[in-house]
């Protein structure tokens, strides 16, 4: 159950970032990057996701926001 909660928290932040990017709200998406990093790092530290997946997610979304 804890793993599901952590994964859902991660997915929720990802959905919010994508929603803001599609609406053209770069500032709001950029503000959520710290939440994404925190959720991904927490999930990786607890073994919910692999540490490389956490790093890949953070890198991809930072790149996505930077190019928006």
Structure commentary:
- The protein is mainly α.
- The chain has one domain (2-66): Ribosomal protein S20 (Methane Monooxygenase Hydroxylase, Chain G, domain 1).
- 84% of the residues lie in helices and 0% in strands.
- It has three helices and no strands.
- The N and C termini lie far apart (35 Å).
- The mean pLDDT is 95.
Q: Per CATH, what is the topology?
A: Methane Monooxygenase Hydroxylase, Chain G, domain 1
How does the helix and strand content classify structurally?
mainly alpha
Total domain count = 1
Overall CATH class: Mainly Alpha
Distance between the termini: 35 Å
Give the key terms.
single chain; 68 residues; mainly alpha; Methane Monooxygenase Hydroxylase, Chain G, domain 1; 84% helix; 0% strand
In short:
This protein has helices spanning about 1-20, 25-45, 50-65.
Question: Can you lay out the helices and strands and say which pair or pack?
Answer:
Layout: H1 2-22, H2 26-45, H3 51-66
Helix pairs in contact: 1-2, 2-3
């Amino acid at each position: 159950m804890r793993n599901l909660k952590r994964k859902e928290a991660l997915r929720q932040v990802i959905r919010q970032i994508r929603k803001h990017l599609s609406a053209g709200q770069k500032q709001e998406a950029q503000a959520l990057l710290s939440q994404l990093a925190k959720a991904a790092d927490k999930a990786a530290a607890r073994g919910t996701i692999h540490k490389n997946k956490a790093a890949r997610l953070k890198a991809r979304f930072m790149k996505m926001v930077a190019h928006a």
